[in-house]
Amino acid sequence: MTEFFNVLPPSEALAMLLQRLEATIVSDLVPTIDALGRVTLQDVASTEDLPAFPRSTMDGYSVRSADTFGASESIPAYLEIVGEVPMGRPSELQLSVGQVAGAYTGGMLANGADAVSMVEHTQTVDESTIEVLRPVASGENVVQVGEDIRVGDTVIRKGRNVRPEDIGGLLALGITEVEVARRPRVAIVSTGDELVPPNSSPGPGQVRDINTYTISALVEQSGGVPLPIAMVSDDYEAQRAAAARGLSEGDVLVFSAGSSVSSRDLTAAVFADLGEPGVLAHGIAHKPGKPTLIAILNGKPAFGLPGNPVSAMVVFDMVVRPTVYALLGCTLPPEPRTVKARLQRDIPSVAGREDHVQVRLITENGLIQADPVFGKSNLIYTVVRADGSVTVPLDKGGLYAGEEVDVRVY
Question: Which residue among 55, 64, 320, 339 has the highest number of C-beta atoms inside a 10 angstrom radius?
Answer without folding.
Answer: 320
